[in-house]
Amino acid sequence: MNKQSLHIRKGLYVLALATGVSACSVPKQITTPPPVALPETTVTDTLDIKSFAQVFNDPYLKSLIDTALAANFDLQAASQRVIVAQSQLRMAKNAWLPTVNGVISAGADRYGDYTLNGVGNYDTNLSPNIDKDQKIPTRPTPEFFVGFRSSWEIDLWGKIRAQKDASLNRYFASTEGRRLLSTQVVAGVATMYYDLVALDHELKIIHRNIGLQEAAVATVEVQKAGGRATELAVQQFKAQLLSTKAMENNVKQQITATENQLNALLGRLPQHIQRSADTTNIIPPAIAKGIPVTTLLRRPDIQQAEMNLAATKADVKAARAAFFPSLTVTPYAGFNSFKAGLLFQPASIAWGALGGLTTPIFNQKQLQSQFNISKAEAMTAFYRYQQAIVDGYAEVSSVISKVENEQATWQLKSQEVAVLRDAVSTSNLLFTTGYANYLEVITAQKSVLEAELTLVTTRRNVYQGMITLYRSLGGN
Length: 476
Known about the structure:
The protein contains eleven helices and four strands, in the order ααααβαβααααββαα. The chain is α+β, with helices and mostly antiparallel strands. It has two domains: 33-96 and 158-324 and 364-472, Outer membrane efflux proteins (OEP) (Up-down Bundle); 99-154 and 327-358, Single Sheet (Outer membrane efflux proteins (OEP)), CATH 2.20.200. It has a four-stranded antiparallel beta sheet, with no helix packed on it. Helix 3 (59-71) crosses helix 6 (159-225), helix 6 packs antiparallel against helix 7 (231-265) and helix 10 packs antiparallel against helix 11 (438-472). It is found in: Cell membrane. Belongs to the outer membrane factor (OMF) (TC 1.B.17) family.
């Protein structure tokens, strides 16, 4: 065995020893605690998703939702984030391929007389075995290269594959994030639209009561003229009328503010929002109890948290693989010469390849720190995922209960309004015949106004509950 082979074997021994030492310090794979166990839900207990279609069946509302999905600035920004994630995924998918670069380079070196190249070039030029084209320019020595250079890291331990998996899951998370935002935008548009419809109905109720109160003022003034009522009664009726008219202005301001908020959500300047006339008290049908687990887990925020968890786990795998040696191959091929005129001669064709096995030795602490960071981020993503499931389940459960209770309240309030309307008619009749005083009439009118406004609020709460349930189930 010659000395050169002996040196090569010693070098391999040293590299193998360093690789073994590096491998001994590789951390273990990440393990997460047991996930939250959700109760099973039977098919008969699942939600009646068709009832959502009865909430969003208004043509004006559908048009506003389409406008928001196309023009909302937050959604457009989210779309750009999806494009960024998609581009990063495309980069990660191609990371395992070798890089190939076309190279045209020219340079010159002035070697010292007491260097290997300087002495070698001088000695070569004195050799009788070379012709005139092979004589080397010595002061300085040019070098020209036209060809291709490549670099290729062999994915021995799955590091590049783990990085691709991380990018893939982050892309999915960005799409779920956009879906989450879309659901929130749709819910926001529907909520403000039904707020406007409810305010319109409140305005109609106030106008009707203003008419009733103006008739009562006229009646009591006639009775005062006939000596059957006092000035105090006239003042009480007028005060109630003024209070109701002031309430009208307050509702008008709420309508303007809500329209402006809705226009901002639609990505446009303030303008009138066209909407259906609310002339009937239609209430959404009752929904079945129970939370379908499969539907809950399809919520975009839960899906996004799950994808982020998968991405961080892939980051941990990539950080762990960084402890192992990496194999890199760097080939090249092209024309190479020290004279420009001889560059494209067949004798100037050159090629070569270098394979290198690199193992980390002195940067173990940096790699360990990066692994710890990736592991902590993965555990953070795990806990966020679990919290998203718990929050989603609690939110859906609360909304279902709210819708059910608000529907029952609406039924009772409807009966209350009917009774109080009859009481207003009765009090007016008794007042004109002298069997009731003006305070009883004022109380009856005030009670029916409050009950009618409460009925509108209750109906709006039912619709808002259905919209919240739509959003809570991820728009499914």
